[in-house]
Amino acid sequence: MFRQRLVLVAMSALAVLGMASVTSPVHAATDAAVNAGRGDNGPVIVAHRGASGYRPEHTLASYELAARMGADFIEPDLVITSDGVLVARHEPEIGGTTDVSTRPEFADRKTTKLLDGVEVTGWFAEDFTLAELKTLRAKERIPQLRPSNTIYDGRFEVPTLQEVIDLAKRLSKELGRQIGIYPETKHPTYFREQGLPLEPELVRTLTRNGLNRPNAKVYIQSFEVGNLKALSKQVRVPLVQLVDGSGKPYDFTVSGDPRTYSDLLTPKGLREIASYAKGLGPQKDRIIPRDANGYLTQPTTLVADAHRVGLTVHPWTFRAENNFLPADFRSSADPAQWGDIFAEYEAFLATGIDGLFADHPDIAIEAVKAYTAERATA
C-alpha cells in the first residue's frame, strides 16, 4: 500500500520540480549557487549529530563513525562552558545526554532556567568549566527508541569544537577526502543573555584553524536570524537559515518582530534570507507535508522557490525508526522498529533537495546512490 502512495508522492514531487525547471533568467543565474551546496555525487549527506542512529549523539565516536560511513559533513550543535569553551551538546541542559544526574558532586548544580521563554530544570553546560564537563560521560538521549546505543553509555566524553575539528582533519587525511563540519549555534539569544555569546569564540576557532575562508568545507546554521546576519559580516563560509515546522525565531520574539518561520518562506522572506545566507535548512514537513493521519501529501514549491533566489536546501531530519517516519512507510506499530526509510528518501530526493540531515548516514548514502543511478539510466 505505501509503495503506491510513494509513487503518487514522487510523481507530485517531480511535477513540482518540473514546473520549477522551466528556464528563466533568474533561475539560470542561480544554478551555480545552488550547485555549490551539492556534493560531487549528488545531494550532500550531513551526519546529524554524527552517526547518532548508532552511537550516542555528539561524541567523537559518533562523528568518526559517520565519516567512515561516507558522510560529507559532521554536525556539532554548539553550547558553551562557564570558561568560554565551545562544546558539542544538543541543548544547554545536559541531564538528558550525560551522566551528570548520577554525580553527587554536581547535585547542587541542578537548577531551573528560562530557556527561550520556557522553564527548564536540570544541569546546564554554562554552569560547568570545561574541566568539570570533561569528567562527565555521554549517554543515549532516546534509549526507548535506540536501546542498542545504550551499550555505549558512559564510554565517551563531551567533545569540544576544537576536538571535532581535529578529528575531521585527521580523518580527511586518513580517508583521502575532505570531511566538512556543519556547526549549529544553539539558542544564541539565551547564551547572550547568560553573558556567554557563542559567536565570538566560533569565529576565533574557525580562524585559528584556517577555516574562515570561502572554500573551507564549513557551514554555520542557526534557528535565529539576527546572529546569522551578524556572522555574515564576520565569516567567509556559507550560512544556513534553519526553519522549524512551526513557531518563530526566538530573537524575533525578544525584539517584537511579528514574523514567523512561515513568513520567512514567502518569496519576500526567502529573498531576505538570500541576502545573508547561502542555504535553507527547513524541517522536512515544509517540503512534503503530512496529513492529520501522518501520511505524506503533495509537495510544496519550497525547494523550487528557494532555488529561484539562489538558496540551497538541506532539510532535516531523516531517521529510520517508525516513530519518525511518515505513516506511509512505517513497518509496524513498534516505534523503535525500522521502517521503509528508502521510500521516504526517494520521495524527498524527487523534490530536488541539495542535501539532507541523517541520523543513519550509511542508509542516506545508499539511498542517494540508488536514486542518482536510477535517474542516470532513465
Short key terms for the protein model shown above:
378 residues; alpha/beta; 4-stranded parallel beta sheet; disordered N terminus
Description of the structure:
- This protein has 378 residues and is α/β, with parallel strands linked by helices.
- The chain has helices at residues 2-20, 25-35, 60-69, 130-133, 161-175, 188-193, 199-208, 226-231, 250-255, 261-264, 267-274, 302-308, 341-349, 361-377; strands spanning 44-47, 73-74, 77-80, 86-88, 111-115, 118-122, 180-181, 184-185, 220-222, 239-243, 279-282, 312-313, 355-358.
- The protein has a 4-stranded parallel sheet, covered by helices on one side.
- The chain starts with a helix and ends with a helix.
Q: Give the overall shape.
A: globular
Secondary-structure content class: alpha/beta
Largest sheet: 4 strands, parallel
Percent of residues in helices comes to: 25-40%
Count every helix, treating DSSP H or I runs of 4 or more residues as helices.
14
